[in-house]
Specification:
GO molecular function: glutaminyl-peptide cyclotransferase activity
Strand order of the largest sheet: 26-27-28-29-12-32-31-30
CATH architecture of the largest domain: Beta Barrel
Low-confidence stretches: 1-154, 190-207
CATH class of the largest domain: Mainly Beta
Distance between the termini: 28 Å
Helix content: under 10%
Keywords: Membrane, Transmembrane, Transmembrane helix
Number of domains: 2
Number of strands: 32
Pfam families: Glu_cyclase_2
CATH topology of the largest domain: Lipocalin
Radius of gyration: 21 Å
InterPro entries: QCT
Structural class: mainly beta
Organism: Trapa incisa
Strand content: 35-45%
């Protein structure tokens, strides 16, 4: 098996996959193997891929592009940008005016001008635990949507409409995102804006999931069963704690209990005072475990989870672990790649404004943060296709 260091694209149409440019003998896409029988002809699927779309008669169905990326770094596993659900109008790119640097080395974003622009403050908490606020110009962009006709097996799929776009630090390796009152967002890494407070973490810790409970910011760390509690107003370190999850990936709360993820298929419930595990469920869809649960958010009685290395958000019942639905966001990352942002990483980061019912998402190293609205697609994909698009093989970074 040859290792690929460049991106390639597979197109599926009429049940026959083909690729014009691949000349290797074999390729792998999202841990699935393809054999090339001709450099410009068809690809034969191995048996594990028999659940991919098979159309017996030629139709005018659109191509389903699957972008595969390989990398040598451990957190740059192969990624799949599944399929376009929406067809967007060409939207003019809003470039920030550019941050200015103060004499003390802090970075400030320019203030918007004009009475019609609302100011927003975004704060973040990351490996350096920087608290930021930035003022961004809000422009509402509407998009027209076209759904792909598929079988109507179940109505659990949702696509999105972009409401607002905000500048986001392309160097921010986003691990957690949460909304607080007064239009403040806390993020587990940096955003464009002004540094208001600084609390440096020990360099041996890698900041991960973050949630807000009362006046306490609670954070877990990667590869260490250690977390930290901070005062939300001045970022002073209140407490260090240990937890019983296998790792620290995501945190969320309903105001009474904490929900945690460790990169497996387990969704934990933690006591907010002692941080002890009070319960846990295995997250499943169609009888299959949903692995790689990452950043979490509690929304209207459900726990929403990014699935690491996918463009999907799972809507989970925390009572039994069943996936109630999927939010599909492939066009966000695809749009950034098309715009020339080739250094971006995976979708990660969900924040919910419960008072105004606003939903925000972003990704690791993304230059934008989006306010979005979701709505059901007209016809759903088969469950086997959803598993292919949204579910990934388990990955375990934990040290033995």
């Amino acid at each position: 098996m040859s290792n690929f260091t460049t991106a390639f694209r597979l197109y599926w149409k009429f049940g026959l996959p083909f690729e014009k440019n691949i000349t290797k003998k074999s390729v792998r896409c999202n841990s699935q193997e393809f054999r090339v029988t001709s450099a410009i002809s068809h690809l034969n699927k191995v048996r594990r891929l028999t659940y991919l779309p098979q159309w017996s008669t030629p139709t005018r169905r659109p191509y389903l592009p699957i972008d595969c990326f390989t990398g040598e770094r451990e957190r740059e596993q192969m990624r799949v940008n599944s399929f376009p659900l929406t067809k967007r109008r060409s939207i003019p790119v809003r470039r920030p005016l550019g941050p200015s640097t103060t004499g003390d080395g802090l970075v400030k974003s320019p203030l918007p001008h004009g009475p019609n622009h609302l100011s927003r403050r975004i704060a973040f908490l990351g490996p350096a635990l920087l608290l930021l606020c930035f003022f961004a110009m809000f422009t509402i962009f509407s998009i027209s949507s076209r759904k792909i006709a598929v079988d109507d097996s179940s109505r659990t799929l949702y696509t999105i409409e972009i409401i607002n776009e905000f500048p986001h630090d392309p160097q921010a390796f986003t691990q957690g995102l949460l909304y607080a009152e007064n239009d403040t967002l806390f993020e587990s890494t940096g955003l464009n804006g002004q540094v208001e407070a600084l609390h440096k973490m020990n360099s041996s810790y890698f900041g991960e999931g973050l949630t807000l409970l009362g006046d306490r910011l609670i954070q877990v760390t990667w590869l260490k069963k250690t977390g930290f509690i901070y005062n939300r107003y001045n970022l002073s370190n209140i407490e260090e704690f240990s937890h019983q999850m296998q790792d620290g990936w995501g945190l969320a709360t309903d105001g009474k209990i904490l929900f945690g993820s460790d990169g497996t298929s387990t969704l934990y419930q933690l006591d907010p005072q002692t941080l002890e595990v009070k319960g846990k469920v295995i997250v499943k869809y169609d009888g299959y475990e949903v692995h790689n649960l990452n950043e979490l958010e509690y929304i209207n009685g459900e726990v929403w989870a990014n699935i690491w290395q996918s463009d999907c958000i799972a809507r989970i019942s925390y009572k039994d672990g069943n996936v109630l639905g999927w939010v599909l966001l492939p066009n966000l990352r695809k749009g950034l790649l098309t715009a020339g942002y080739h250094g971006i990483d995976v979708l990660n980061g969900i924040a919910w404004d419960d008072e105004r019912k606003r939903l925000f998402v972003t990704g690791k190293l993304w230059p934008k943060l989006y306010e979005i609205r979701i709505y059901p697609v007209e016809k759903n994909f088969s469950k086997s296709m959803i598993r292919q698009f949204c579910m990934r093989d388990p990955v375990n970074f934990a040290k033995p």
